């Protein structure tokens, strides 16, 4: 698990998931963007390390309202143990026909200092979760209780979420486009490269808006382009 309390976290707060997926693609990682998820409310980037919960299909003799009182219920236990700075990531098998969690559990996670909430299913009380201000991503709103479709079985072990393998301690970054998962051991170098890429992309955008052709500029194909970029960077203090 990467320490995200310092410079790396600040760096990831300023880069997009699009840029991060390109940096990971350069390293051979093609499947890192959690598919089908949307953010409940706009805001700054979500950055944190993964703390995971896995659901399997519900079973009628086990998934009853009384099960919520069990302190070993993995959903409730996970909410009470999720560390500050973590992102609570729920494997709901892509099934949004029942809620993965609701606003009370989301509020508890926020109070514990968690950095976000992610599921490939749906949330109930989604307007209230959006109002909390904590970053939250899901497939779509879903009012029915999780017990109707989901049985919580495991905490903080590898899961699938949005078609992506998520291991405990991996770094998650979310923005208005969605969520990307960065393998923990690559976080520092990917963050640094993405920051450099972002500066160059800002330069390219300014040039293109000013009428420049993208040919030879993006990607750069000559020394002249890079010389001009370095000059622009110096002038702009980037």
What would you note in describing this structure?
The chain is α/β, with parallel strands linked by helices and 238 residues long. Helix content is 32%, strand content 22%. The strands form 3 sheets. Strands 1, 2, 3, 5, 7, 8, 11 and 12 form an 8-stranded mixed beta sheet that branches. A two-stranded parallel ribbon has the order 4-6. The chain has a two-stranded antiparallel sheet with strand order 9-10. Strand 9 and strand 10 (164-166) form a beta hairpin. Helix 4 (103-111) packs parallel to helix 5. The chain is elongated. The relative contact order is 0.21.
DSSP strand tally: 12
- Count of helix runs: 7
Calculate Rg over CA atoms: 20 Å
In what range is the share of β-strand residues?
15-25%
Main structural class: alpha/beta
Helical content band: 25-40%
Low-confidence stretches: none
The secondary-structure element order is HHEEHEEHEEHEEEEEEHH
Mean pLDDT reading: 95
Can you summarize the main beta sheet? 8 strands, mixed
What is the overall silhouette? elongated
What is the end-to-end distance? 30 Å
């Amino acid at each position: 698990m990467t320490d995200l309390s310092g410079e790396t976290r600040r760096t990831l707060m300023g880069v997009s998931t699009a840029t991060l997926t390109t940096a990971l693609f350069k390293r051979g990682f093609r499947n890192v963007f959690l598919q089908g998820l949307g953010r409940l409310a706009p805001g700054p980037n979500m950055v944190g390390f993964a703390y995971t919960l896995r659901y399997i299909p519900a079973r009628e003799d086990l998934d009853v309202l009384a099960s919520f009182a069990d302190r070993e219920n993995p959903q409730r236990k996970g909410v009470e143990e999720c560390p500050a700075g973590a992102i609570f990531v729920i494997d709901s098998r892509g099934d949004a026909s029942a809620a993965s969690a609701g606003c009370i559990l989301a509020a508890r996670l926020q109070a514990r200092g968690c950095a976000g909430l992610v599921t490939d299913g749906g949330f109930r009380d989604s307007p209230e979760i959006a109002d909390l201000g904590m970053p939250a991503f899901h497939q779509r709103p879903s009012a029915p209780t999780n017990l109707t479709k989901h049985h919580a079985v495991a905490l903080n072990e590898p899961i699938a979420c949005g078609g992506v393998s998520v291991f405990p301690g991996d770094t998650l970054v979310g923005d208005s486009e969605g969520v990307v998962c960065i393998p923990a051991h690559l976080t520092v170098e990917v963050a640094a490269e993405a920051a450099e890429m972002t500066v160059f992309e800002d330069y390219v955008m300014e040039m293109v808006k000013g009428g420049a052709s993208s040919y030879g500029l993006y990607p750069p194909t000559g020394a002249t382009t890079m010389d001009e970029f370095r000059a622009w960077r110096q002038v702009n203090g980037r």
